[in-house]
Amino acid sequence: MKVLAAICIGLGFACLTVVLVFVLVGPERFWGFAGKADLGPVPFEQLERRQSPNDALACPPQVCAAKADIMSARYPVTAPQLRAALANVIAAEPRMTTVNTDEATLTDRYIQRSKWLGFPDTVIVRFFDLQEGQSTLAIYSRSQLGESDLGANKVRIQRWLSKLAEQVASVE
Predict the structure, then answer these.
(1) 45 and 65 together in one domain
(2) pTM assigned to the model
(3) Residue 130: is its pLDDT beyond 70?
């Protein structure tokens, strides 16, 4: 019985230590043990989706090689105008960090962290000019940690596109 009590006390102390470290150093530094929060850029044209269900993709069919969860709409504005509209949506999102913007390719990369534990997700958005002053976009959102995101990446993309539709109505 004394051995079992010692094991329970030891486990309790270890858990308390982990929680204390998490609170003291913050989620960004705590989750740094798994590597950088930014998972880097992706070429949408050659994108290969993960085997684990912890990513989501919105993309027009003529752009992405990988199967999209959501087909991106066409918008009656230029790619820079669409980018500005989505930037307004993203600016209203909590716990967002801009990692990179590439003016030449109209590509932006962000980190968004979960509310309670600060899990980092990398989100990449690329804008494409189409004919007749129209445009579209591709969004790839993926989790750094875990085997499943419980649908959080797909929900994020759906939320962003819904809010974008409030600013710019799609053509289709």
Answers:
(1) yes
(2) 0.83
(3) yes
